[in-house]
Amino acid sequence: MDRSSHLSVILDLCPTQWLLSAQPSNPHPLSFDTFLSHLLVFLNSHIAYKHENSLAIFGALPGKSLLFYSSEEAGDPSTAEVVQPDPNSYRFFKTVDQSLVRRISREFDILGQPDTEEPCALVGALTKAICYINRLLHPAQSLSSPEDSANLPDPRILILSVSPDASNSYIPIMNSIFSAQKLKITIDVCKTFGPDSVFLQQAAYLTGGSYIYLEHREALLQYLVMSFLPTPSIRKIITVPTEDKTDFRAACFCHKHVVDVGYVCSVCLSIFCQPVPVCSTCRTKFPMKTLQRLNMTRASSLTGTGASQPSASRPTNGTPAKQVYTGLAANLR
Amino acid sequence: MPPRRQDDIMDVDSDESDASLDYDEPRRKGKGKAPKKKDKRKSKVTEVPYAWEASYVRSWDTVQEDESGSLQTAVDDLIARGRRKRLFAPSKAIRRTIIRHLIIILDLSNSMMDRDMRPTRFDLSLEYTREFVNEWFDQNPLGQIGIVGMRAGVGERVGEMSGNPPDVLRAISERHKLEPTGDPSLQNAIEMAKSTMSHLPTHSSREILIIFGSLTTCDPGNIHETLESCIRDKIRISVVALAAEMKICRELCDKTGGQFGVAMNEGHFKDLLFELIPPPAQHSTSALTSRLASGAPANAPGSAGGDLMLMGFPTRLPDTSPPSLCVCHSEMRSQGFLCPRCSAKVCDIPTDCDVCGLMIVSSPHLARSYHHLFPVKAYRPVMTMEETANSSPTCHACAAMDTGADGISPLGRYRCTDCSNDFCTECDVFVHDVLHCCPGCER
């Protein structure tokens, strides 16, 4: 119960999105400076929470991801940033604050003002965070002793996301989620700006974390401290807001419609909203017999329900579709 | 009796170390093993007169300590060995059977009470079967497993075909219901497994895994006819034998394209089982058809079982929805999934809808299989200092400093051929075995 916890924070540092977020025309504008000051208070409270708590901060920049700060690096004098001692502040707080701010501004300087902006390397940051936690959980054999395994930290990842989903990152994100599940890492997501992210919703749901969309963005610190500071073991006792609306329906590969009943290639698992003769992903030819059978059932279901597309909004309970479909079941067996 | 109790504890300890460290022995399959097994038994008889002493001896027979007295080298060797195996494996994407159907045939005959594996062959195989089922479902989320027992000369249905791991595990959880007795019958059990899978569509695989401890089988008819019909139905049979090789077992595997192995000890038994977990490549049927119709138009890749399947993506009912009866257990529950075709409520997915038979999956289940289709390329070990001249001093993934030499790379560095980033030993193994996504390429 009283184990130390490890927190990996992933910062989405997409310059365009942060610019948009700071626009005064937004109902609740949030500039990057305010965000950073809120975040630093949150990070300090995580360190203050328990002495053994550890911290790692990863940044997802356009086309690049890197480790900004980690507790073990800060503890090692050879690699740590030089921090002027300040008698009025706690040394660990000072180290985190200074090195994080310094490195972020350094990266933004390197970034300059490119003509085209690459998408943010969220996947890179997420996979690095998982590899880092994997190393923490499986320390080198020579160092490990039996009592060490008892006080391994309770790991979690907090993603502060501002950019929308990139569709080509679906498979790597799902792979990361499954490895996080295996390592028992909780992934929390705080969507600070931009549209809801379906991928990150799934990440939070599948790993038992919470996904929170900020409505009042000026109250960021409140959200962070109230819902993301408690460790997963404490969250069993106190009630933390969670998202219970995660949508697991899939989108077809051909028209990106969300489908209820899809046609799936048995070789590569591509999803189509209508029977196709050749798989567009792996070029598998499907047998004529299957196509005819599927087309027949599809035609009858369309005329029966009067729906124009199978991908149209799903029939709610009690529509005529129900009887037609149960009748169909016999044909399909 | 205090001394006796001490013995028991020791016994358990040595067994565990045995199971985890026996990888060190050279892996051999099939024929090479049977004589080895006999040798071991003979030596056991000559050196150790009592069965309870046998288990101690082996654990320090197999593991070599290094000069400083630690087992680190043995463990390093184990990791390196695994890596070497992966480097030689083809890294390009091969077509694999994703939708699998497997019947596990457990030998429940008298010979399973033999104590040559601790605590008994029966208990050990039950334990490993449980682990196997968990791992199998983890890697094959769209698969289904059924369980058949061979007991007293008949095949006995222990667990129905199911895609839900708890259901399968429940079937083999009650040890007293599976108490071994009588002789096994391979033919009866295979016939039963075959009939369970006869209705399956062609794009799914049909597999049988036999855990066989006996050296005899008492069959009512000609087992070669059963074998012929299995070949015709494209059923792949794999056998893990616990005693010794039998000609008929070897033939069952060879002719149907399965794997055959004789377990030398506990660790090797587990290895043999777990080798069957990754989805098999779909080459056997396609290779056969292409060989037969070599002059025919290039329809071989398409005809190798590719098919379009109808699948339903259900609506998840949240925990706060009003409770209603589910079709699978007839229990009042609030959470569940609605079949998109017939609106029946099922408790767990993936499954086939109990009312309309539609295959119900969620998109994460499909995504869980993708890594078999798009594997990460093997990293190349960095051999010389010159190569590291302009790369970062730390691991690209976990930011660890250089870890030092291991079994393969003298620097403990592995480089991705696509993004030319360097990774440490630990991350190399983790990326390829668990993560399935290169942190440098982000693919």
TrEMBL record, chain A:
It comes from the Eukaryota. This is Transcription factor Tfb4. It comes from Thelephora ganbajun.
UniProtKB/TrEMBL annotation, chain B:
It comes from the Eukaryota. This is TFIIH basal transcription factor complex subunit SSL1. It comes from Thelephora ganbajun.
